[in-house]
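For the sake of transparency, this paper describes our internal protein records without simplification. The remainder of this section carries one protein's record, kept here as part of the documentation:
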Amino acid sequence: MNNRKRRLWTAGIAAGGVVAALVAFLLIGNPQEKGDDGRTDRQETVAERGQTVMPFDLEQTTHHFTPTKTGGVQDVVADQPDDTKQVGLIRTHLQQEAKAFSQGDFGDPAQIHGNSMPGLAELQKGYERIEVRYRERPEGATLTYATDEPALVDALHDWFKAQLSDHGDHAESGH
């Protein structure tokens, strides 16, 4: 095969690959495309996975993520403060998570958000150097994360950003 034919043949394969990718995109859809409820496909997947891990109803609760200089604060609250069922479920879950995170077990967030979640690997490796405190509040509960290590603070901030993005309208930034 001469050089001209080889270039044409290579260009044809490349064009075919682009066409195949475009067809797949059109058939499968954009993972960031929003559905009828305003959520991306990823947010829908996270919400579905969350139902298997979190006992409270995501439609009746909100996560708040507030980065701090030493880590961050994660609040989970019932949208209706007098919803004692949701408040109780939030408290039970966050007590369990505080214990698990203090032991380096971040399995629940990994199950919901995936093992490649930003910050997760660093938190799993550095868990002994992160203090996790649980506290009840009238409408739910709070986890406070604190460390002296800037790299772990950055990992916590990355982890919070990923959760904010993945939970969509079920989460808010505390800034």
